[in-house]
Amino acid sequence: MFYDLNIPYVANDAHLPRTLAFLSELGYGVVALNHSIVGKLPAQISCAIPSPLPQKDIPCKLEIRRRVTLTLTESYQNARLAELAKAYDILAVRPTDERTLQLACSSLDCDIISLDLSQRLGYYFKFKMLSEAIKSGKRFEICYSQGLMGDSSARRNLISNATQLIRASRGRGLIISSEAKAAVGCRGPWDAVNLATVWGLSQERGFEAVSKEARSVIVTAQLKRTGYRGVIDVVYGGEKLEVVEELKQGKEGGKQGKEGGKAKQNQAAVNGQKRKAEGDADGGAETAGQPISKREAKRRAKKARMGGEETDQAAQIPATGAVPAKNGEHG
Amino acid sequence: MVRIKHRYLLVNILYPDPKTSNVQMKAKPGEDAPYAMQFRQPSSDKMDGKVLFRLIKDNVAELFGDYGSGKIAGSLQVKYFSQATSTAIIRVSRDHYRLVWSALTFTTRLPKPLLQPCVVQVVRVSGTIKKAEEEAIRRARIGILRAQRASKGLTGGVLTTRKPTNGAEAGAQAEADDDIDASMIDGIEDGNEPGDVDEDDGE
């Protein structure tokens, strides 16, 4: 499964289905549409990427995620970052200088740190700073499309910065994505891995960058939003199922059913109190939400057998009228 | 005694631009041909192995300069080129195939007489030309199946839009598509030629 986590999203783009179909054709399985925000955040934060997408002809095999990239300029509002993160599936930040990069690596709560590698950076990458970010789950992004489509200086900067980043991060914690504005800027996943290999990343790390690391970004981002204190998701919250009795009586009539249900419940409660060892013998069938233990199952089977034989004997008396024969059969 | 070892790159040329139309597509009235068929359309008549060779040489010279050009000059050869499927098999020396591969990745359009925007995708790297050939045949076969299904109007796979699909048809088509995907996941580099010993693995 290959991931491309940076496809710029422009509202009402007629070429979007074509780009997505091309990505799917190249072999990508999951794609993230990226909305960029520069400068001040709007007063009302909402997801700019509608879901489902309004265009027709979106390939159905492609999974689409929604992502926002916030460019960290001088003035940014740290407090509203959490709000922004909630509105999208993935939150990325784009530091513009060393100070903002330091901030992003240490204190900001984001999923991806994406730098504009086609610009000449005035600083070097330091392993300590990068590994701090990677330990907390953030990943660094290398976008290849600007260098591909752009002019010679963009290409040179991309190669130089990418090489530095790969060396400083020792190959871990990187993801590779296009930042392709059109389908022409997209490349196949193995082509991207080869580019990274030429720039110094080993083949296994390169493959991880397009598959495992990208997947971990998506999953971690999701966990941050839906998980709480180590709990990923709640499948069954332990609610008691008392609906079963009401459903049984439901066919007779609403009110009647409820009363009947209540009566049965009381009987079950009474039975339970009287015969604790039985373990809710009659009521056990009603509270079907709990699994029956093996001992209980055996008890019930025996009871059913005894009960069955009693009715059997009752039926046979008028037929045969002979007691000894009955006993003989009973053996 | 010293046998020169090669790598054979199997390459697809894709045309993502809506304006390139090398062939006239027969589509249903009111609809375009499905995207997959448009991307994998045949190349124009002016495109052939020599143009591709020139393209690679120019790109390597642009990216890697005289050093790169010198390194690959002796062993670069376009062994096979098919206009109909826009597929090519390129031979490079084993030590420098990544140079040629990245030069192919950096191509954005075909050279002078054509100037069509294109995307070059390497789908197989193999030590023998036979394996590359087999892969080309396998992919062509899958491509034909998909085109046939598309022309019959069945839905499924890349060609689908988000409409409710008939389960059986979608399943059958998904199998054909998974064929391509399955081979991609494990890696696209084949083993070496028989008798090939890998001395350098620090790539």
UniProtKB/TrEMBL annotation, chain A:
GO cellular component: nucleolar ribonuclease P complex
Hydrolase keyword on record: yes
Record EC number: 3.1.26.5
Molecular function GO labels: ribonuclease P activity; RNA binding
A Pfam family hit: RNase_P_p30
GO terms (BP aspect): tRNA processing
Subcellular location field: Nucleus
Biased composition (Basic and acidic residues): 250-262
Record keyword Hydrolase present: yes
Region feature (Disordered): 250-331
Top-level taxon: Eukaryota
InterPro entries assigned: Pol/histidinol_Pase-like (IPR016195), RNase_P_p30 (IPR002738)
Keywords of this entry: Hydrolase, tRNA processing
Biased composition (Basic residues): 296-305
Family from the record: Belongs to the eukaryotic/archaeal RNase P protein component 3 family.
Protein name as catalogued: RNA-binding RNA processing protein rpp1
UniProtKB/TrEMBL annotation, chain B:
GO molecular function: ribonuclease P activity; ribonuclease P RNA binding
Disordered: annotated segments: 155-203
Pfam families (alphabetical): RNase_P_Rpp14 (PF01900)
EC number: 3.1.26.5
Gene3D superfamilies reported for this sequence: Ribonuclease P, Pop5 subunit (3.30.70.3250)
Domain of life: Eukaryota
Catalyzed chemical reaction(s): Endonucleolytic cleavage of RNA, removing 5'-extranucleotides from tRNA precursor
Presence of keyword Hydrolase: yes
Enzyme class label: hydrolase
Localization per record: Nucleus
Record keywords: Hydrolase, Nucleus, tRNA processing
Residue stretches of biased makeup (Acidic residues): 175-203
Assigned GO CC terms: multimeric ribonuclease P complex; nucleolus; ribonuclease MRP complex
Listed GO biological process terms: maturation of 5.8S rRNA; tRNA 5'-leader removal
UniProt record similarity statement: Belongs to the eukaryotic/archaeal RNase P protein component 2 family.
Primary role: Component of ribonuclease P, a protein complex that generates mature tRNA molecules by cleaving their 5'-ends. Also a component of RNase MRP, which cleaves pre-rRNA sequences.
Protein name: Ribonuclease P/MRP protein subunit POP5
Species assigned in the record: Recurvomyces mirabilis
Lineage of origin: Eukaryota, Fungi, Dikarya, Ascomycota, Pezizomycotina
Gene field: POP5
